[in-house]
């Protein structure tokens, strides 16, 4: 099948900026549009989803994702709402949930359905909390109201969320999908969130050697 590489640097600006660019929204599709754009427009880290014959892989859904959404997005910078609706109809059939074609959903529900049940991909993240390990495909940031954060960046939100939930990454993930605390029609915790172009996960890793904040040597205790 024909394939197009992810957009980078000047090409990304040229192809994706302007009117009638991105993924066309229709009938509460924003959660899926944003997730698909984030996963595929400018990175190839999950391109295996488009080509590899995973054990449970539904080749029809894989073909729609690749040929009707990702390739047009990378080639012209625009995806029609009808293409996303075609995918939503297939997800409705596979997921035994009729509301995928018309209702607003949590992005995590969409990712779990397409990655686990339809394509059969191994979980991307291994987390530990209270001595228990859990596997998942994405991490959703949960925070209480943060009075001192007006316009936070992603690094701050991830670190505070892990700390408040007593979480650690068991291993360095091949892909770290993070859902921001800014979604839904009714409530936005932050008016804006600044993207962190690099994410330092040193302090989030389980049993990772870290430096002392006072002397700079390898730390032996954690506050």
How would you summarize what this structure contains?
This protein is an alpha/beta fold and 223 residues long. The protein contains seven helices and seven strands. The protein has two domains: 9-118, Cathepsin B, Chain A (Alpha-Beta Complex), CATH 3.90.70; 125-219, no CATH class.
Describe the overall structure.
The chain has 223 residues and is an alpha/beta fold. It has two domains: 9-118, Cathepsin B, Chain A; 125-219, no CATH class. It is built from seven helices and seven strands, in the order H-E-H-H-H-E-H-H-E-E-E-H-E-E. The protein has helices at residues 9-16, 30-40, 48-51, 59-76, 81-95, 107-118, 154-164; strands at residues 22-23, 78-79, 125-129, 132-136, 139-140, 167-169, 178-179. The strands form three sheets. A three-stranded antiparallel beta sheet has the order 4-3-6. A hairpin with a 2-residue loop joins strand 3 and strand 4 (132-136). The protein is globular.
Helices and strands in order:
Elements: H1 9-16, E1 22-23, H2 30-40, H3 48-51, H4 59-76, E2 78-79, H5 81-95, H6 107-118, E3 125-129, E4 132-136, E5 139-140, H7 154-164, E6 167-169, E7 178-179
Parallel strand pairs: 1-2, 5-7
Antiparallel strand pairs: 3-4, 3-6
């Amino acid at each position: 099948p024909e394939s197009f590489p992810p957009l980078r640097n000047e090409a990304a600006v040229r192809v994706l900026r302007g009117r009638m660019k991105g993924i066309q929204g229709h009938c509460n599709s924003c959660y899926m549009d944003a997730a698909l754009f984030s996963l595929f427009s400018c990175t190839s880290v999950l391109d295996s989803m488009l080509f590899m014959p995973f054990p449970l892989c539904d080749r029809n859904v894989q073909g729609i994702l690749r040929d009707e959404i990702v390739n047009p997005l990378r080639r012209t910078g625009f995806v029609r709402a009808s293409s996303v609706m075609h995918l939503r109809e297939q997800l409705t059939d596979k997921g035994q949930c009729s509301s995928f074609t018309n209702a607003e959903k949590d992005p995590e529900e969409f990712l779990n359905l397409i990655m686990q049940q339809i394509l059969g991909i191994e979980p991307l993240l291994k987390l530990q909390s209270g001595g228990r390990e859990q596997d998942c495909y994405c991490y959703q940031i949960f925070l209480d109201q943060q009075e001192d954060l007006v316009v936070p960046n992603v690094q701050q939100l991830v670190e505070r969320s892990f700390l408040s939930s007593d979480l650690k990454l068991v291993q360095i993930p091949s892909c770290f999908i993070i859902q921001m605390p800014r979604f839904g029609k009714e409530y936005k915790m932050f008016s804006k969130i600044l993207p962190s172009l690099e994410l330092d996960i040193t302090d989030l890793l389980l049993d990772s050697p870290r430096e002392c904040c006072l002397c700079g040597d390898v730390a032996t205790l954690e506050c």
